[in-house]
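Notebook entry, structure prediction.
Reason for the run: the old model in the group folder had no record of what sequence produced it. Starting over properly, with the input documented here first.
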Amino acid sequence: MKRTTIYLEAALHQALRMKAAETQRSLTDLINEAVRQLLAEDAEDLQAFRDRAAEPVMGYEAVLKDLQRHGKL
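New structure, fully documented this time:
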């Protein structure tokens, strides 16, 4: 573990303390979980960008024409 100092808004700190008490978990556990979830979401987004990198690029007008051609506009 690495020690760090963070500054929370008073309302967030209070809510976090209440959550910790209700779940019988430490503030550290809750903060670590929140950060992990945030980083996992970023990793998913980055993977989606990598997965779609080879897709053909369509201009705005081409997209509109395609939607009209398929009766979606």
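Summary: Residues 10-69 form one domain.
The old model has been moved to the deprecated folder.
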